[in-house]
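Shipment paperwork, digital attachment
Item: protein structure file
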Amino acid sequence: MLIRVQGVIIRSMDYGEGGKIVTLLTETHGKTGVLIRGASKPRSRYGSLALPFTYGEFVFFKGSGLGTLSSGEIIRSHHKLRENIDLAAHASYVAELTDRALQDEEAGNWIFSQLLACLAALEDGKDAAITTHVYEMKILQAAGYAPVLDRCVSCGRTDGLAALAGREADLAAVQTLGRREQGLGRGRRRNRDGRSRQKGAEGGAAKGFA
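Attachment content:
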């Protein structure tokens, strides 16, 4: 079957003599793998099309396994992301996060648009750390793990929201945080008392063996 899609390369690896296997995140076919023959050869017309972060149009034959590229065209190369080591680190992290978050051929048209926006923001000079964190939140949302930010996760209050609630990474109200701090305080006191009793018992045992 011949497939024509627009996609972003989120992973690229060498294959055989001069070939590359790329993983595309596409708007219509989710995540899919494509073999680009001869992409590593010096005079290959598809060499730049196989580079990480490249956004392009890909035409490939798809059977039961990997697709095989028939033709392609670059829409936006994102070459600045490969030339700057800091941008390359952020873009690589974003690409790997996307790859791990989605299964093969899992529909990802919303994530596709978010990835394009993230890579464009990185290349256009937006704050790399903030851009990456925003994309992480988008991935969490798509995976069903987004934190609750509009109400307290314990009491359901929508007013008096104070801070993220520890390991849950959700918002908690002032009253909830107060109760948790009280609980933590009691737990710390119990731990201190337990350690004191343990030291006393160890001291007594040491005297008995002396």
